[in-house]
Amino acid sequence: MKFVVCVKQVPDTTEVEVNKETGTIIREGVPSILNPFDEFALNVALKVKEKVDAHIVALSMGPPQAEQALKKCLAIGADEAILLSDRAFAGSDTWVTSLVLARAVRKIGDADIIFCGQQAIDGDTAQVGPEMAQHLGLPQVTYMEEVEEVGKSNVICRKETDEGYVRIKCKLPALLACLATSDFEPRIPNIRDIFRAKKKPLHQWNMGDIGGGLEEYGLEGSATQVIKSYAPSERGDCVMVDEPPEAAVKKILEFLSDQGVIG
Amino acid sequence: MIVVDGDKCTGCGVCVKACSFDALELVEKLAVFDDGKCTYCGVCISACPTDAIDMERKPQTADVSAYKGIWVFAEQNGGKLKNVVFELLGKGKEIAEELGEELCAVLVGNKVEYLPKVLASYGADKVYMIDGEVFENYSTDGYKSAISMLITKHKPNILLFGATHVGRDLAPTVAAHLGLGLTADCTGLSIVEDKYLLQTRPAFGGNLMADILTPDTRPQMATVRPNVMKRPEPEEGRECKLVKEDFQINPRNIRTEILEVITGGVEGEKPVEEADIIISGGRGVGAPENFDMLKAVARSLKGTIGCSRPVVELGWMPKSRQVGQSGKTVSPTLYMACGISGAIQHRVGIRNSDIIIAINKDREAPIFELANLGVIGDIFKILPLLASELEKKSE
After folding, report:
1. CB contact under 8 A, B345 and A224
2. Chain A residues touching residue B177 (CB < 8 angstroms)
3. Taking Cα atoms as reference points, which of A223, A190, A217 lies closest to residue A90?
């Protein structure tokens, strides 16, 4: 089988701070990481590979330095990696991003399962996966937590829902958008893995490789436009209590009573 | 534009049978389309056994003025409407009045004929309904086809979905299928320049807010976080126009099948997103069994237990209890944060609470930036005392 795992290099948003005056992200000193949802997706693909013979291609769209994320994928266990990098792709919204990735998947050819993270921690849109599935005409399972069984023409997965879980069967080829489970432990590549990864192919593709015209990509091709960004406002009217427990509890009770929460 | 790959098409006719609109016929053993009849529902694409049918998708530049009406996707599960639907109808009404357009609900399901009057009482002027056995359970293929067909036929100006698991599966699928812009997880919506929907959403884990427009594609589509918009008061007996659309899909053309449904959550407790009082714990609680202290407080206040992300990652609480950017957004009357430092990702999820009380040892904890009452102290001393005082009061 052939699996394509789509990954994104993201700033570690737990380390991000905003310049409140300019309303922009302070990027200096913020580490770039492999999006955790995507790392989980790769892990799911690797687990399936333990049971069926498979070739795993890691695919990423991003600036040249996103190569680092792909190198990590190769060290963790992907067999091949492709970086889609072109100035023409800059400023793409989810629709265009999914189009670029879908065209690359078509060029790779014969993918049985496309794995991606449910969302990226910087954008949090959760749109690129489902939009890619549409561009490719494939069925999808979003909020996918576990692949239970892979057959010739079907896959059975466990999917999170608003009410709990479902076990769902999906025809292949398909796209699975993976939601990291709480017990997920990332594989830590050792020195040998990293050394081996250096021998695996890492390709660079640009717009010419996937086809299409300039007007389809980047800002020009995007249907949505970000017109402004700014730091969120805080409430900032906190009454502080710094007293021994008995007195603090009394203050809490008074407050609850004042607010009408208790009688 | 639907395209048929002549090399792959075997002339089997499966697509002709799958199409509800007679938009396909076989001409000399090749599927041929009538673009005038096609509603772009996409059933033929999933039905084709040789993957010969595709749709040319380009972000459309629509004749903007031809698109009218504010639509809300009336998500239901087992015939019960999701709370977010009422919140969207409330916001949708404001937008509809500002633009002088109709507020419409879009209802897809099985035996849901009793729901239009509920939607009307919450402000819908019109309900588009597709009712059929094949729509009993949500499926991406089935619902995408139904919604795409309705959009193509009736041309709405704005379409809103709740950012639920279903909404976040369906909306991008429809958007990509029809070549439409979509903004995810909005926390604010307004109209600018008398016509554009300004969509506000958090990004970078809540560190940044972004304002987004969809200038050229229609409908303007957004998913909206539950518990952010205010739910309106229903007006009993209010009437609406009902438009029933006869649209059927052969179940064979739905490429997924639900084998088993497992409902989760802590028994006997309200889900956090619906709770009025939430007692929430963070890493500072120290161990899963220490949540008993929080539960004692919750019992006296008839509250529900919530938690922050680290607690879920440590395996102390199920994911369904998680509040924040990657968990649930909540809007309770009271949110009590115990031993939660208050990373921005958590604060994003609780901003709509009426009152926030934070208890933390660290006076620098960012949670205090958002709290109304901030208690610097040890939860192991304060919570048991608070629980017993509350119990005394309720006796």
Report:
1. no
2. 134
3. A217
pLDDT at A28: 77
At residue B19, the pLDDT reads 87
Cα distance between residue A90 and residue A105, in whole Å: 19
Element (H, E) at B24: strand B24-26
Q: What ipTM is given for this predicted complex?
A: 0.92
* pLDDT surpasses 60 at A22: yes
Could you give the C-alpha distances from A248 to A130, B301, B363, B370, B376, in angstroms and in order? 50, 18, 14, 19, 9
Gyration radius of chain A's alpha carbons: 22
pLDDT band at A235 (very low <50, low <70, confident <90, very high): low
Of A18, A125, A135, the CB nearest to B208: A18
Q: How far apart are the first and last CA of chain A?
A: 65
Give CA A151 to chain center in angstroms.
Answer: 26
DSSP assignment of A182-239, as one string?
TT-------HHHHHHHTTS-EEEE-HHHH---GGGSHHHH-S-EEEEEEPPPP---PE
Q: In terms of Cα–Cα distance, which of B164, B75, B168 is closest to B119? A: B75
**What pLDDT is recorded for position B393?**
84
Q: Which residues, 6+ apart, have CB-to-CB distance to B18 below 8 Å?
A: B43, B44, B47, B249, B250, B253
Residues of A in contact with B217 (CB under 8 A): 223
Q: Which domains does chain A have, with CATH numbers?
A: 2-221 (3.40.50.620)
The three-class DSSP label of residue A178 is: strand
User: pLDDT tens digits, residue range B68-102?
Assistant: 999 999 999 999 999 999 999 999 999 999 999 99
The answer to whether the bond into A173 is cis (omega within 30° of 0) is: yes
Mutate which of B84, B165, B187 to test chain A, going by most A C-beta atoms within 10 A? B165
Hey, what are B51's tokens? 């993957």
From B57, B256, B347, residue closest to A135, measured CB to CB:
B57
In chain A, residues with a C-beta closer than 8 Å to the C-beta of B296 are: none
Residue B54 has pLDDT above 90, yes or no: no
Q: Which domains does chain B have, with CATH numbers?
A: 2-55 (3.30.70.20), 64-253 (3.40.50.620), 272-390 (3.40.50.1220)
Nearest Cα neighbor of B162 from B253, B228, B214 is B228
Q: Do A177 and A7 meet the contact criterion of CB atoms below 8 Å apart?
A: no
CB B274 within 8 A of CB B290: no
- Chain B from 25 to 54: CB within 8 A of any A CB: 45-46, 51, 53-54
Tokens of B270: 């309200």
CB contacts < 8 A (A, B): 278
> In a 10 Å sphere around its CB, with 0-12 CB exposed, 13-18 middle and 19+ buried, how is residue B306 labelled?
buried
Residue B166 with chain A: CB contacts under 8 Å: 161-162
CA dist B358 and B330 (Å) reads: 16
Q: Which residues does chain A have within 8 Å of residue B347's beta carbon, measured at their own beta carbons?
A: 234
Is pTM beyond 0.90? Reply is no
Q: Which residue has the higher pLDDT, B205 or A154?
A: A154
